[in-house]
Amino acid sequence: MTSEKKDLTRRDFVKTVGLAGLAVAGAGATGALAAPEQQGAAPKAAVMPKRKLGKTGAEVSILNLGGMFDTINNQLLLRQALKWGVTFWDTAESYGNGLSEEGMGRFFARNPGSRQEIFLVTKLQAKGGNLTERLDKCLKRLQTDQVDLFFIHAISGIGEMTPAIRDWAAEMKKAGKFKYFGFSTHTNMEDCLLGAAKLDWIDAVMMTYNFQVMATPKMREAVDACGKSGVGLIAMKSMAGRPGPAKVASEAKSELVDRFLQRGFTDKQAKLKIIWENPQIASICSQMPNLTILSANVAAALDRTKLAREDFDSLNRYALETRTDYCAGCGSICQEAAGGAVPVSEVMRCLMYHRYYGEPELAKLTFADLPEEVRRRLTEMDYSRAEEACPRRLAIAALMRQAAEVLV
Ligand code: SF4
């Protein structure tokens, strides 16, 4: 078979892999569905690959179902995710004000035995009242006695992992409310990871990690440090969504799309695959609110094609060309330059939910979590120093004005 024909066959596989074509066995083993030409006439049943989550030793599916969607009215999607081997599920108190947990809980109740198949994560922000009482409510909504992993939600500095939090986590582990403990972070991720690597009571971290940020020396150092100390790593925000309109001409995007279609993937699948190329990342948490996205992501997880050097180059070139469209979460830089009053990168994340995810309600809810003082003063601040300091030259003042318009 010529290489061109091989490519076409693989492309046909990835593009046409449908609901029936993904014959995925349940949880347990590792491996991936090879392209049909490698297996003969019919694809065999395949299993979703799993990786160890750091020192926890737990084996988790490399694709994690992000629960930031209406799980109550998407029970069939939850069932299909489980059927296709996406057995790592992620939710939080704040997703739909508990409704995401509620939907997963209803699924476990309606499907006896399903809870045992799922490696389940939930999260709570440290602020917002008594943690134990709120955790109990999470467990009640999830209709389970214990989650496998619990995160303090969205920290922006390792200082938030206080001795009081450490002691509380130990107490909750002892009480059997969760097995493993860690945090999630979208802001100052590298510093948070470097800090986590020094704390032996942090089992796992979920952090923003994608083609825009993965190659910087500091992120490499931080990921390596966690790898060495056994902190399990879960990537999120894998598509590197932008907070504002694209500033960069669409040729860069067209070139990327064309290249990967020739290789048999969509550009979105390629953005997942480049993350999985790093064995230090146990799983990618991805929002998959419909079957189209779920099936495309599962196909990407099952496909064994290794990215070529040119694929990395192509994504790196695209990252460079779109650099000024993306907020990299280095919030300490702009927040400090703006006088410390506004968590600029948090507002950027809300804008990203609004613009890139097309989730205005989620964007508004996340924005509403910020202190009232911050929301009120958003357009009063002088952002000129922050814009000068921003390594990506984002138009911070204009974006904050847009945030005030669309997020209130
Ligand atoms: S606005 Fe700039 S400095 Fe601030 S977090 Fe985003 S990329 Fe970093």
Strand content range: 5-15%
Please state how the strands of the largest beta sheet are arranged side by side: 3-4-5-6-7-8-9-10
How would you sum up the major sheet?
8 strands, parallel, barrel
- Estimate percent helicity: 40-55%
For the residues shown, what is the average pLDDT?
89
* Class per helix and strand makeup: alpha/beta
Number of helices: 18
Small molecules bound in the structure, each named once:
iron/sulfur cluster
Distance between the termini: 58 Å
Q: Any idea what the shape is?
A: globular
List the quaternary state of the chains.
Answer: single chain
Can you offer a commentary on this structure?
The chain has an 8-stranded parallel barrel, surrounded by 6 helices. The termini are far apart. It contains 18 helices and 10 strands. It is of the alpha/beta class and 408 residues long. The N terminus is likely disordered. Helix 9 packs antiparallel against helix 12, helix 14 runs antiparallel to helix 15 and helix 14 crosses helix 18. Bound molecules: iron/sulfur cluster.
What are the salient characteristics of this protein?
408 residues; alpha/beta; two-stranded antiparallel ribbon; 18 helices; 10 strands; disordered N terminus
Can you summarize this structure?
With 408 residues, this protein is α/β, with parallel strands linked by helices. It has helices at residues 3-16, 75-83, 99-110, 114-117, 131-142, 163-174, 189-196, 217-229, 251-263, 267-276, 291-302, 309-321, 331-337, 344-355, 360-368, 372-377, 384-389, 396-406, and strands at 50-52, 59-61, 63-66, 88-90, 119-124, 147-152, 178-185, 204-208, 232-236, 281-287.
